[in-house]
């Protein structure tokens, strides 16, 4: 993306901006990310190099990561294949049926 194009929305919904444009328009980019409720990405030579996300996106990502770490620990600590299978069934129930 050329610097003169400003903030562009990519096919995956991420607001992309070149580092050159971002330097001069950082406030606008941050407002677009926060109030537009979509992640943004800084690009260099057309490649994404860093992301900026709204606060609620970040907080949810932290919760999701902690939840997945809990699941991973439980599966590692399960002594038998039957215990791992039971954990998997309980997880599916919790995620999709509760």
Explained architecture:
The protein has 98 residues and is of the alpha+beta class. It has two domains: 51 residues, YefM-like fold (3-Layer(aba) Sandwich), CATH 3.40.1620; 42 residues. It has a four-stranded mixed sheet with strand order 1-2-3-4. Strand 3 and strand 4 form a beta hairpin. Helix 3 packs antiparallel against helix 4. The longest helix is centred in the C-terminal third of the chain and has 23 residues.
Q: What is the 3D shape?
A: elongated
Task: Please give the number of β-strands.
Answer: 4
CATH-level-2 architecture of the largest domain: 3-Layer(aba) Sandwich
Our Rg estimate from Cα atoms comes to: 20 Å
How is the main sheet built? 4 strands, mixed
Mean pLDDT score, rounded?
83
The CATH class of the largest domain turns out to be Alpha Beta
Provide the number of structural domains.
Answer: 2
Beta content: 15-25%
Order of helices and strands: EEHHEEHH
Helix amount: 55-70%
Low-pLDDT runs of 5+ residues are none
User: How do the strands line up in the largest sheet?
Assistant: 1-2-3-4
Distance between the termini: 45 Å
Number of helices: 4
Structural class: alpha+beta
At CATH level 3, the topology of the largest domain is YefM-like fold
């Amino acid at each position: 993306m050329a610097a003169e194009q400003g903030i562009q929305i990519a096919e995956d919904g991420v607001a992309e901006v070149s580092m050159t444009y971002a330097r001069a328009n950082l406030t606008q980019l941050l407002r677009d990310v926060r109030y537009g409720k979509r992640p943004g990405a800084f690009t260099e030579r057309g490649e994404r190099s860093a992301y900026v996300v709204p606060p609620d996106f970040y907080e949810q990502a932290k919760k999701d990561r902690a939840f997945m770490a809990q699941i991973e620990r439980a599966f590692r600590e399960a002594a038998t294949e039957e215990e791992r299978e039971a954990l998997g069934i309980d997880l599916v129930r919790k995620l999709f049926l509760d």
